[in-house]
What does this fold into?
Amino acid sequence: MAHSSSHSRRPCLYWFNPLCDLTAGRGTSFTPSEGLRDLAHDLALVPALLASPDDIVVVPELPSTEFLQSQKAAGLPDPELITWDAGSDPPPELLQRRIAGLHPWGWSPDSVAALEPLAAQLPDGTASPSALWSESRRQLYSKSWSAAWLAEVIDDLHADGGDSWLCGRDEIGITCREESAVARTVAEGFEAGWQRAVIKSDFGAAGGQQMVVNAAELKGYQRQWLRRTLVESGAVVVEPWLDRVVDLSAQYEIDEDGSICFLGTRRFLSDNRGRFQGVFVHEIEAGLDADVRGWLHGGDNDRLPELCARLGGLLQARLPAEYRGPVGIDAFVYCDAAQTLRLKPIVEVNPRYTMGRLALALGEHVLAERTAQWRIVRVKDVIDAGFTSIAAWAEDLQQRMPLEMTEGGGRISRGVVFTNDPTTARSFVGMLAVGESQVDLEKVTDVPRKV
It folds into this structure.
């Protein structure tokens, strides 16, 4: 299809495989639910926001011309789009060309199997997809690996001056591989003062594949979930449920020489069960209470960035020697029993692209002084709110907050931009909302009830 490639270099190929966390733990035999398949289908254009005009993004179907024109009007990237069901079909003829690099959302058994046929088209000396996958890389996806890493470094982080603002050992998850060990850990936790607990599958994504427990003894349905999860993932991580205040994601890139670069931190939005909803592109402190904003700075604007840079160096030393590309560390601020704000600096490591990385990329296209969020909206929520169709909702939204560009059309100043075509979405729509303040955004980021 037509796009604005300069043909100045070989293209890199991008593919959105958001189930990489799950296939890392379960292998290619993993069968995703219909909702997960819809997520991969609907948000297939997400990597286009990370790509350059010379690059290729593979998608299950091409968007409409009208939608692509809306992306251009917003100044968003315009890579070449090629249709390919990368999980099922062999590469199409259009991909029989030299390729500079392969960039799935994450390397895992599904992306290795899909992209290995393109290995011969990579530059000489480039590692093939199969060479990039190993047990050590698989372990990076596991919650148990992240919990063990936090347990290993927390004392050193405290020694660096973090006693007053970082979590303690009691907040670090405990890995269990048997049902009896889980029951014992939960019971001991409640005896020690836990009000709630969370049991996380060792391999999960976006806050899913976890269960919140409100009592020391597991109920029958909870034991059934636990048994099934132990069979699927091999382990779970048990930890106290903490009163989250701010969710954060630090973004890094491992360069070709093996060095690590800290790119920045973004705040993401989650529901009351910790499941991902969206991410701030700019003004990540928007809407927070003054005491929380003050705590984030701690009287020293460098405290959080310095910690993130330190964690990046510690992480680099633990990555497989061949690891290159994106990696993120999720963290969160919580309020403890004494009503003191603290940071859990390592919740999980994401050895892949993340929505935090997407937010950094989108930030290049948004006026820096604006508050901006990228959100995932569920089609079901729109219909439940009384709209006759997702298209009617999208039209209503853009009428209430039309696109406004800076002088010369360089950046988005205000408005709503959809990052996949709402008219063809099965279950999910990605939406960038840009406003002058958090109050401005609240007019459109919450699905209104149609009256």
Remarks:
- Residues 12-133 form one domain.
- The first helix runs from residue 20 to 26.
- The first strand starts at residue 12 and ends at 15.
- Residues 151 and 322 are 25 Å apart (CA to CA).
